[in-house]
User: What shape does this take?
Amino acid sequence: MADVACFPVNPFSMNAYIVYDETKEAILVDPGCLSPQDEQKIVFFIEEKKLKPVRLINTHGHIDHVFGNHFFANKYELPLEIHEEAVEDMDMLPVICKNYGLPEKPVIKPGIFLIPGQKIAFGNTKLDILFTPGHARGHVSLYSKSDGFVIAGDTIFYDSIGRTDLPGGNMETLLHAIVSQLFSLPDETVVYSGHGQNTTIGREKKFNPFLKHLT
Assistant: This one.
């Protein structure tokens, strides 16, 4: 059985995740750590739980989700895994950091491209790769059928959805991804979003003001 640990980090209040199971193998998802304090929160948890990070994954390439890629890739000797279409956004990291007046973080090149329809395997756990663009190019979500959760990045939030006014964003594409990829999951599926609190698929079908008309 997989457990999901959430770590709000960076000035954008982005949720970084560690997913791990009884084998102690773990994956890092969107480790958007900008400060050493953020980095150490995650390192401390890994050491406290005696976990072994085996994969480093981005749901998409926006800066708040990729700040910590370089640190964690080097610390745990992991290749970065991301969808090929998301690389263009990720490569803008130094420029956007400068524009925001944030510390400039180095960009690392992907070692593995995520392919929708395939699975991410670690320990005794397998996660389905769902293609959920619209907020960002090459956005993916990670779904555990056996444990009933999806890590949805910035696709959907509690009572909201991802913004579509950034380069590569498209409202029609986003709504199609939510309906076809996420709303096809069981209503009780827990949604771990890139910002804010958890929700469920059923709750968002019923109450999300951006989505009620689609169900």
